[in-house]
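Marked as duplicate of an earlier ticket. Keeping the data here for the record.
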Amino acid sequence: MRCGNTKALDFPIVVASHRVSRNGAEKPGDPSQINDKSSGKQDKSEAELTVLHMHSVNNSILELFSGIILWADILSCASTGAEPQHSDLCRAALEGEDPKIRLENLMGCENWAMLVIRDIAALKVFKEKTPDLPNHSKQVQGRADAIKQRLDIGLQRKGRTYIEIKEGKRIPSPPHEIDIISITLIFALSSLIYLEVALHGSGPSAHPRLQQLLFRWTLNFGFLPDARLLPSVAWPVCIAGCMAMTASQQHFFREEVVGCEGVRRSGGDGTLRRALEVMERCWEGRRREGNGWDWERAMRERGELVLLI
């Protein structure tokens, strides 16, 4: 990952708002005909184009705000343990080969990874509501296995595409596809950590598996193309960072991730700093009291729920 003097990537909202503002700046129809009132047909054509133009602007605005609401709902549930809302709306908007909303165009992460995060949040709430059900039950383990399979398939597919682009065997489409893939992979890998904690907690019995997942996360994090992408991955950074057990792992998140020079110079470290505060609280609690600390408990102990978007 490059950590030079880069400008923060305005992936999340500004990309979409730029698209909306461009729509608003463009003039419909042929400029040479707009002021020509000699033909009623031209006037009608201009009016029709204006209606289509406004419809396009309204759709862009609707997509922007709907996407932000769904994104915030998913990550707030995953961060705080709340039950996911807007189930029908979420699936209608984000599922399918041609979804109505593509979160990668707004926030950088593809829909499938965000839907997985939402399903893990729902599984965690279900598990807490049915404490008598063992983890190996079909209702729990069956759902967890299905989520894990989706993650494995998605990670393999995105990993192959990443390699093909890097080796010049595939032309990225859109041009910033490598950024989208990198962000999506980071979210998906953090989802594996999230799923492990949701099923088994963060106590000693889960440590070996969590450490394997954290090692895998750290290796893949190195493929993030640029420090300007870091503000877009504040949530997965926090999830992975809270599971850092050793001093060297904590140093990595404190200095090489959040403290990256490129992030500081770009001014894009506000959300990452809040993520680090949650991580530090988690690390401190683990040092003081032992195991059983994760991001949810760290936020509760701080008395503040942090929405990392």
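See parent ticket for discussion. Residues 40-80 form the longest helix (41 residues).
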